[in-house]
Write a structure and sequence with these properties.
mainly alpha, single chain
């Protein structure tokens, strides 16, 4: 139908948030990572655009944040550690793996190397792994899109996909809860901010 036609139109960047076109940004990101990771990034972008259209969020911001969300993921640990220290990020990060670091470090790289200055885009990249007590609509969309993109086939992703079709907030809360459960079951340490995010989102459910 007509709405589907409108909804599948490619995103054209306005020049407000980045001087790159979408195609240029895709080319730059592609050079930063393995083929497998790059394909994941494109699927996250597609999912984020769908969610942005569904939840009346800024589609361009969703696209840019999705394309850049994993830009630090394949940096060496040494490079990431240097950025954590030089940018005065929370040094507690260093006691946890690069799985946790790549999000805040990615946010710094998005600003430093790609010239992104929009707070919502930077925040979405920063919080895409462990969430935060307060998250903008764009941050929620990237957090969820990363978890439910079509390449994710585990049961929790299927459940989150269902939730996201009618409540983005429920999907965010479910995902935060799943992550905490998973870490507890594996007897792995939990980054304290992840607990703060969990508490805040659970509290919203009760209120």
């Amino acid at each position: 139908g007509y709405t589907k036609m409108i909804n599948s139109e490619p995103v054209v960047y306005s020049g407000m948030y980045t001087s790159y076109t979408r195609e240029q940004l895709i080319d730059l990101v592609k050079k930063k990572m393995s083929k497998k990771r790059f394909e994941h990034v494109l699927r996250v972008e597609k999912t984020a655009i769908q969610l942005a259209r569904e939840y009346a969020a800024d589609v361009e911001k969703a696209s840019i944040a999705a394309l850049l969300h994993d830009v630090a993921k394949e940096q060496s640990e040494a490079e990431m550690r240097d950025i954590v220290i030089s940018e005065n990020l929370n040094l507690d990060l260093l006691q946890f793996g690069s799985q946790i670091w790549h999000a805040p470090v990615g946010s710094i790289l998005a600003e430093r190397e790609y010239g992104i200055s929009d707070d919502e885009i930077l925040e979405a990249i920063k919080y895409h792994t462990i969430a935060a007590p307060e998250m903008s609509l764009i941050a929620q969309i990237i957090f969820v899109a990363d978890y439910i993109e079509p390449g994710r086939t585990h049961e929790a992703a299927k459940e989150a996909r269902k939730l996201a079709s009618y409540s983005l907030r429920d999907a965010v809360r479910f995902e935060i809860t799943q992550t905490i459960k998973y870490l507890v079951e594996k007897e792995e340490r939990i980054y304290p901010s992840a607990i703060d995010a969990y508490n805040a989102w659970i509290e919203r459910k009760m209120s």
